[in-house]
Design goal:
The structure holds 2 protein chains of 2 kinds. Among the domains of chain A are: about 140 residues, Probable tRNA modification gtpase trme, domain 1 (Gyrase A, domain 2); about 70 residues, Elongation Factor Tu (Ef-tu), domain 3, CATH 2.40.30.110. Chain A contains 8 helices and 19 strands. Chain A is globular. Chain B is built from 4 helices and 9 strands. Chain B is an alpha+beta fold. The model of chain B has no long low-confidence stretch (mean pLDDT about 90).
Chain lengths: ~375, ~120
């Protein structure tokens, strides 16, 4: 099932030892689940769970023009944050299509940029293409590992001190289980929680210590299945499924990350036009009956005609019914509208529901996070 | 169980005279991940060997179910409606799917445990 070329994170041995079922994800061999997606999903929602997200691309950007360089490349306004804070962001192309979604961290002596695994090389090329000679971009993906500890009890159960001082989307240097790390209050589950950057040489010890400390309380290691289900309940977009370069941020419901008044940036003119004309499509939430899981690519049918397509869908063990995101034509639908979706070649009833499907313990629900 | 047979499409069956019980294998449930729903036929329906009779839906994907033999459905596991997770927790026991009354002979291409293991591990 996994290509021989798939990369492995420094935690690969742990995943195998824990019985993880490994799959290829963005060119990386990672666990879909360890014991059960259901149990891991519920651990995230009720206690806390630990994810290996070392596959995500991590770049360190330095040089005195770094702020101006990044500000010209992202859609959000970095002037609205300060050192010690992170911001959810997008790279768009000149036509306003989304190249990737990412998080920019403003550190003491460098900026860090965390991107999707499948886009790492493309993003690196895009950044280097636009960087002035005074800016240096280092790919730190392999030397630096990244784990996410997510759940309503994350602050209590992560073996670290000073966590209550970290605001939502803030970060600082600190120790986890006695190991030097950078701890950030961010995530991709809708729950409160932390993402911990640590030297790859120490990540194994950190992983073991966090699990050992949390086990009595019900902390579990969690795989990609639980990660996808929780991000979807929180209506956090998945690049490659819910959006790509043919989709602009307004269509993806991410217009709040586009700050047209901040000065020029790549894609600004195209995005200003979309803003003025209004997007032609929009992302909505759907709920279907138990057993009717609408998968990526399934048609959405309204008033007897095709009105859009499902971009992500799964069964929510936490909510007890299947949920889906769909990209539909505007004028869009209202919450409560009845439509149909294609499930296993037939039309199944679906209801338009409010997003997010579930609002977890994350500090600021409006600032959709991205890990 | 010594007399459990298997198919290349990852169903298992046990045979007692004309009565055949069908499910999916432990390997199949592990590959599917958590099962959330089964679409199953009504008792009385006649199936031929290799015919699609239903769908098992997991969080990851929907997969067709194939009848390993020709026969008439005498029972469908009603417990699976409320508890589809029995497919994962007890695939060879409480997670059985159909009971059939065999029509004619058993197909010649059924696998024994050793032969199936080779298929699953391939």
């Amino acid at each position: 099932m996994t290509g021989s070329a798939a990369r492995r994170t420094p935690l690969y041995g742990r995943h195998v030892a824990l019985g993880g079922r490994l799959v290829d994800f963005g060119g990386w061999e990672l666990p879909q689940q360890y014991t059960s997606i259901r149990e891991e999903h519920l651990a995230v929602r009720k206690v806390a769970a630990l994810f290996d997200i070392s596959h995500m691309g991590r770049f360190r950007v330095t040089g005195h023009d770094t702020f101006d360089f990044l500000q010209r490349l992202v859609t959000n306004d970095l002037a609205r944050i300060a050192k010690g804070h992170a911001q959810y962001n997008l790279f768009c192309n000149e036509e306003g299509g989304v190249i990737d979604d990412l998080v920019v961290y403003w550190g003491e002596d460098a900026f860090f940029v965390v991107v999707n695994a499948s886009n790492r090389e493309r993003d690196l090329g895009w950044m280097r293409e636009h960087a002035p000679s005074t800016v240096e971009i280092e790919d730190r993906t392999f030397e630096l590992s990244l784990v996410a500890f997510q759940g309503p009890r994350a602050e209590e159960l992560l073996p670290a001190t000073g966590l209550s001082d970290i605001p939502y989307f803030g970060f600082h240097d600190g120790e986890v289980a006695g190991i030097k790390t950078m701890i950030s209050r961010t995530g991709y589950t809708g729950e409160d929680g932390f993402e911990v950057f640590v030297d790859s040489a120490s990540v194994g010890d950190l992983w073991d210590s966090v699990l050992e400390a949390g086990r009595p309380a019900g902390v579990l290691p969690a795989g990609l299945g639980a990660r996808d289900a929780t991000r979807l309940e929180a209506a956090l977009r998945l690049y490659g499924s819910d959006m790509d370069e043919t989709v602009n941020p307004y269509e993806a419901g991410l217009g709040w990350t586009v700050k047209l008044d901040k000065g020029d940036f790549v894609g600004r003119d195209a995005l200003a036009k979309v803003r003025e004309d209004g997007p032609r499509r929009t992302l909505i939430g759907l709920r279907t009956e138990p057993g009717s899981i609408a998968r990526h690519g399934a048609a959405v049918i309204a008033r007897g005609r095709r009105a859009g397509v499902v971009t992500s869908g799964t069964h929510s063990f936490f909510l007890g019914y299947p949920i889906a995101l769909a990209m539909v034509e505007v004028p869009s639908f209202r919450v409560g509208d009845k439509v149909a979706v294609e499930v296993r070649g037939r039309e199944a009833p679906a209801e338009v529901v409010k997003l997010p499907f579930y609002r977890g313990s994350a500090r600021s629900a409006s600032a959709a996070s991205k890990s | 169980m010594a007399d459990r047979r298997y198919t290349k499409s990852h169903e298992w069956l046990t045979v007692e005279g004309k009565n055949v019980t069908v499910g999916i294998t432990d390997f199949a449930q592990a590959q599917l991940g958590d099962v959330v729903f089964l679409e199953l036929p009504a008792p009385g329906r006649k199936l031929s060997a290799g015919e699609t009779f239903g769908v098992v839906e997991s969080v990851k994907a929907a997969s067709d179910l194939y009848s390993p033999i020709g026969g008439r459905i005498t029972a469908v596991n009603e417990k699976l409606k409320e508890h589809p997770e029995l497919i994962n927790s007890d695939p060879y026991g409480d997670g059985w799917i159909l009971k059939l009354e065999l029509t004619g002979e058993l197909p010649g291409d059924l696998l024994d445990e050793a032969a199936y293991k080779k298929v699953a591990e391939a």
